[in-house]
Every structure is written in C-alpha cells, then in structure tokens.
Amino acid sequence: MRFDFTSVPDRYGNDALAVDAPTNYDFNFGEVEREPGYDVIPMWVADMNFRTAPSIRKAVVERSAHPSFGYFRPRDEYFDAIISWQKDHNGLTVRRENIGYENGVLGGVASACRVLASSGDAILLHSPTYVGFTGVLTNNGYHIVHSPLINENGTWRMDYEDMERKIVDNNIKLAILCSPHNPSGRVWSREELEKAMEVYERHGVYVISDEIWSDILLNGRTHVPTLSISDYARDHVVALYAPSKTFSLAGLIGSYHIILNDWLKTRIDKEESLSHYNSLNVLSMHALIGAYSEEGRQWHEELKEVLSDNINWACDFINNELDGVRVNKPEGTYMLFIDIEEYCRNHAQSVEEVLHRGWKYGVYWQDGRPFHGEYNIRMNLALPKSRVIEAFERLKKEVF
Ligand SMILES: Cc1ncc(COP(=O)(O)O)c(C=O)c1O
Known about the structure:
16 strands; alpha/beta; binds pyridoxal-5'-phosphate; 2 domains
C-alpha cells in the first residue's frame, strides 16, 4: 500500500463527533460507564477513521497559505474535476451546466422535495431507511411511505410490486432511491435499477437518487448511475453526489447535484437560492480538487481494497464466531447492518441490553431500530483493520 490505512488517527479534541460525542454518552442510554481498560472504537457515525488522501490536505494547505479568503467564484478546475470524476468512475457525460452546488446531500434532498412535492405529500422510500432521510422528510412535513426491501437468501432486493402498489394507493409522485443503499450495502445492478425505473415511469414519479456512497464499492463492484438507466431517468432524476463519504470530508461541507433536464435544474437551483446559504466554501472547493486529483484517485483505489478486506474479514468472523448473529454481506458502503434477532431470542435478551454491553466495552456501534431494523445494529468498518479485529474480539468475548 502506498498510503497509510493502518495508523489510528488521534481524533480526540480534533473536532470529531465519532469520538468526542460519545466518550461517555450513548444516545440510547445516556451516560455509559465504560469498563476500565477498554478504549473507544468508533463504529457508529458514517465517517472514516483513516487519514484522508494527502492530496486533499496539500490542496487545502496550499490555498490557506494565501492570506485572503474573500468572495470568489468556483474555479474551472472545480467543475473539470467533477466532470472527469463522473466520466471515469460512473461513465456519465456531464456538462458544467448540469452541476449544482449543495452544502450537503440532505440539503439537496430537502430542496428537491420542495420543488417536486407539496407539504403533506407521500414520498416513497425503501426500508431499512437511512435516518437522515427520515429526519429531513418529517422535518419538512412530508408523509413517508416505506417499501420494505426483501431479504432473499442473504441479498436485499427491491419489491417492485409493493413499490407499485404503494405508489398507486398513495398517489405518489416522488421517490427517494439510495444507491448504493445505506444501511443494507446493496449496490443495485443495472437490471434492478431498470425495473425500479419502469415502475416509477409508469406512474410519472420523479426520483431523488442519493448516490453519496457511489464510490465506496467493495470486492470489485461497479456503480450504475440512475441517470444512465433510461430516457425517462435522464429527465426525471435529481442525482446527488459528494466527495464527503469517499474521502471523509463531511466536516468541510461540499456536495453537488447533477441534473440533466434543464427545466428541473432551473427549478432546483431557484429553490436552493432562496435561503441564500447554499454556497461553496473556498477551502472545500480546493479539497474536492485535491480529492479528485490523480493522487486522490490512487488513494481511493487503495481505500476500496482496505474496506473490502475489512468487510470480508468481519462477515467471516460473524458467520464463524458469533452465534445467532447474521449479516448480509454489503457490496458497497462501509457499514454493516447486523441482525441479532436469533441471539436475542436464544438468550432472552433485548436489543438494548446487547447494544449497551457493546458500548460498555468500548464498541461504539449504532442502534438499527431508527433505520427500521427491528433487531439490527449498524456498524462502521472504516477503521484500520487492527481496530476492527479488536472490536470483534471484544464482541465475541464480552458481548455475545
Ligand atoms: C445515504 C446518505 N445520504 C446522505 C448522507 C449525509 O450527507 P450530507 O452530510 O452531505 O448531508 C449520508 C450520511 O451518512 C448518507 O448515508
């Protein structure tokens, strides 16, 4: 490996929610008395415990050396970086006019909803569901209708009939598609996306396609952008992307949308202009340019290998060592959505008890119930492998 994916970065006191927020506080249980000798292994919020690509730091530091941070316009290099990243990674041909800035992907979801739905309208989502969607939609007064994914022999699948029925029954005109899907880790195939898009098209449904995870692909998987699925998709999809998951840049803020339909693009841009808050930060612009550079691309290739190894190792460990715990191996993202139902039933224990024991022994994992997983726990595996091993050994010895 050319880059460092083994050092454990010291994130304490360095503005990291992953370690600072839960040092002795669990969102489910309040104060947690950690057992002595067990440090915190942050495995909840979706950011990475690796040093990010050196090209990003270099770009930000170089720009910071210039002592002026006044008003600015995004550079050509910013748009060129996005255009070539999309071409090379997703096979998408994008013009500068198709790209629009978003402070965050969830902000993009909110703006697109405001253009494409009225308050109180029903919006279709798959469940399990990323909690961020639930928060944005309820906060903005929409009614969420879930179409549950089906667990088919260890693979989560969309239920097209259920989607169609719910679209018709609830007069739905807007859906959110998470691709790759958080928290299940599915990387949808072209065929699956085609089938979903046929359902949407039959009922004139617009689609917000959240592709924030599209670069986090495991074991050689490839991402199929929703915009590339059909002519209908070209005209009815708002696609949301960001370097934030890929390069752990969430604290710098800076995402973007790609919209190929000029009318839709104009409407979304107008909606986003209303707050007068949705503007690019000069340092995050340089961070994106550094991320999408040649060196950033090499780092990203290595990252995918490291994450694949972590996920493969952890899934084998769960299957071989943790009785009553199941997991569908993710194809993308760095999250595991483990299912502990059998363990809970066999040992007459509640999800709370298991979760709490994990936190007590420093494994800071996340309750899956707000994601609509009744017996699920979500775990972030973007850590140096030594920490992943340590966490699972603690789970085996102290928790399960
Ligand atoms: C599917 C999905 N969308 C959006 C976000 C958040 O994006 P942002 O911080 O840019 O709003 C996350 C973060 O975990 C996510 O998993």
